[in-house]
Design brief:
18 helices, amino-acid transport, transmembrane, about 400 residues, aromatic amino acid transmembrane transporter activity, Amino acid/polyamine transporter I
Length: about 400
């Protein structure tokens, strides 16, 4: 008799790629030309490419280890089983710190922006009310699961790409190639600034908290997950290259110290680029772009934090259990944002160090232990070594920068 059991159709690679790209490419991309100005274009391209490759490898290593476990098994389960409770505790605190601080930062930073936008529509709300409304909307989407996140993320990512092209596409036609590729002036060097840029590049490819959800979403299909990671991170790299080329190709290196002295944010960069931009309603389009950028990254970060908390506490994938997980994911950052709206500034400087631990070092160590316990794969060992070297180099860069031993471009 024919088996009439229906096999659920595999979701498209596109949805997973949108989650990755939406998480990775946020409003923080606008700071890249500023922090990379000292190292300039050649080093910027090299560091972005190396960081993309290393972070993709670390994600693939973590995915490979995850496939030895049931769907839903996340960082805590894998680390506790393969590296022990000590490593699991350290790694868990790192994840909670990084994703919690980022969630706190998104709520704190976006509250005033959305308060102003809602008020302009004729609905008077306070900043606190805007923060609560935004958090509830994002929490509802995350509670629905990966499918809901992927759909909204796709809309946000496509809107961001369209707005990015509308705003800055014309800059590509005006790129000054000799300026981009020009050697350093006599007595000046680009390479001393390169090491300090590396932690920013690592942070620009942070998506590892979303892998657990993708493993469940694609029913542990290695090929689908791999292609989603490749497409998502590849799109992110392409968007970064577009932005770096557009800005550095229209502004000489000598213009960036002034931008840095003005605060180094998107407002200062836009002011310097304004004579090159031929876009009407520039401020309106930038405001719309920032809204989509914040929502996409906010969704990606909190979806990763949601999956980690569910795995750490062993909650089932039921509506009631997901509601408890959502409360633990969103309530603490929201309350912290309401009572201490600027407190994250003091702690966010350490986020890069902890991100190196759980998104680079730990995936490599997990893959190494999995090689010992499960069927070894010779091709994995070189990837483990490369990822570990990348992690150590980032820790070195962070430490030297924190001690003030690295040169700072544009410093007075």
């Amino acid at each position: 008799m024919m088996d009439t059991t229906l096999v659920r159709r595999q979701p498209s690679v596109w949805w997973g790629a949108m989650i990755i790209c939406g998480t990775v490419v946020g409003a923080g991309m606008f700071t890249l030309p500023v922090v990379m100005a000292g190292a300039w274009f050649g080093w910027a391209l090299l560091l972005l490419a190396v960081s993309w490759g290393a972070m993709l490898l670390s994600g693939l290593l973590f995915m490979g280890v995850s496939l030895h476990y049931p769907p839903g098994a996340g960082f805590d389960t894998l680390t506790k089983d393969l590296l022990g409770r000590g490593w699991a505790a350290i790694n868990g605190l790192s994840i909670l710190f990084v994703l919690g601080i980022l969630t706190y930062a998104y709520i704190s930073a976006s509250g005033p922006v959305y308060q102003q936008s809602i008020s302009q529509l004729g609905v008077p709300v306070s900043t606190a009310e805007a923060k609560i409304a935004l958090t509830l909307c994002v929490a509802a989407v995350v509670w629905l699961g990966t499918r809901g996140v992927s759909r909204l993320m796709t809309f946000c990512v496509l809107a961001k790409i369209l707005l990015l092209i509308l705003l800055f596409g014309g800059l590509l036609t005006q790129v000054d190639v000799p300026s981009l590729l020009s050697p350093a002036a006599p007595g000046e060097r680009y390479w001393p600034y390169a090491l300090g840029v590396l932690p920013f590049c690592l942070a620009s490819f942070g998506y590892h908290g979303n892998i657990t959800g993708l493993v469940s979403y694609y029913q542990r299909n290695r090929s689908q997950i791999t292609r989603a990671l490749l497409l998502g991170t590849g799109m992110s790299l392409a968007l970064y290259l577009f932005w770096i080329t557009s800005t550095m190709g229209n502004l000489p290196r000598s213009a960036f110290p002034g931008i840095i002295r003005e605060g180094g944010d998107i407002a200062a960069l836009l002011a310097a680029l304004r004579e090159h931009l031929h876009v009407r309603a520039l401020s309106l389009l930038m405001s719309v772009f920032s809204h989509f950028a914040v929502i996409a990254s906010f969704l990606g970060v909190t979806a990763g934090l949601f999956d980690f908390i569910a795995d750490r506490l062993g909650y089932a994938d039921t509506p009631r259990a997901r509601l408890k997980t959502a409360a633990l994911t969103f309530l603490p950052p929201l309350l912290a944002s309401l009572f201490w709206p600027h407190g994250f500034v003091a702690a966010i400087g350490f986020a890069g160090l902890f991100a190196t631990l759980w998104a680079v070092i730990v995936p490599a160590l997990l893959a190494w232990r999995a090689q010992q316990r499960f069927q070894p794969q010779p091709r994995v060992l070189p990837a483990i070594v490369l990822v570990l070297l990348f992690g150590v180099l980032n820790i070195l860069a962070w430490g030297l920068s924190w001690l003030g031993w690295l040169p700072v471009f544009g410093a007075a």
